[in-house]
UniProtKB/TrEMBL annotation:
Belongs to the polypeptide deformylase family. The lineage of its organism: Eukaryota, Viridiplantae, Chlorophyta, core chlorophytes, Trebouxiophyceae. It comes from the Eukaryota. It holds the Pfam family Pep_deformylase. This is Peptide deformylase.
Length: 128
C-alpha cells in the first residue's frame, strides 16, 4: 500500500478532517479506516489562539505536518506529564492524559521510507 494513490487520498482525507475540526492529531480508525496511520500537526495559529501562558504550561510548540504509517512508540525513561486533551472522535470531550516526556518513534512515511526519531517534551524536537 505504500506509495499508492489510495494511501495518498486517505492521508489527504485525514489531514482535511483534522484541520477542519480543528485538531492536532488524527488516527485512521477515527474516520473508520482500520489502518495504523496517524497525522499530526500543531499550527502556530492554534497556539496563538490559546489563553496567555497556556501553551507554555502544556509544553506546546508548533510543528509541521507529520504522517506516520505503522507507528511504534517506546518510552525513554519514566518522566512524564499529564495534560487535558480533546478527542476528535467525541466532540467536546476532554480528559487528563498521561504522556511520557520522551519517546522513541519508529514508523514509515506514506512512501514507505523508514522514520525513526525521538521526541522530548514537544514534537518540535523531532528529527526524522
Amino acid at each position: 500500500m505504500f506509495g499508492t494513490e489510495e494511501l495518498r487520498e486517505l492521508v489527504a482525507k485525514m489531514v482535511t478532517a483534522m484541520r477542519e475540526a480543528p485538531g492536532v492529531g488524527l488516527a485512521a480508525p477515527q474516520i473508520g479506516v482500520s489502518l495504523q496511520i496517524i497525522v499530526l500537526e500543531d499550527k502556530p495559529e492554534y497556539i496563538r489562539s490559546m489563553p496567555p501562558g497556556k501553551a507554555e504550561q502544556m509544553q506546546r510548540q508548533p510543528f509541521e505536518l507529520l504522517v506516520l504509517c505503522n507507528p511504534q512508540l517506546k518510552a525513554v525513561g519514566q518522566a512524564g506529564a499529564r495534560f487535558y486533551e480533546g478527542c476528535l472522535s467525541v466532540p467536546g470531550y476532554q480528559a487528563a492524559v498521561d504522556r511520557y516526556s520522551t519517546v522513541e518513534v519508529n514508523g514509515f512515511t506514506p512512501e514507505g521510507q523508514p522514520l525513526r526519531f525521538q521526541v522530548s517534551k514537544g514534537i518540535d524536537t523531532f528529527k526524522p
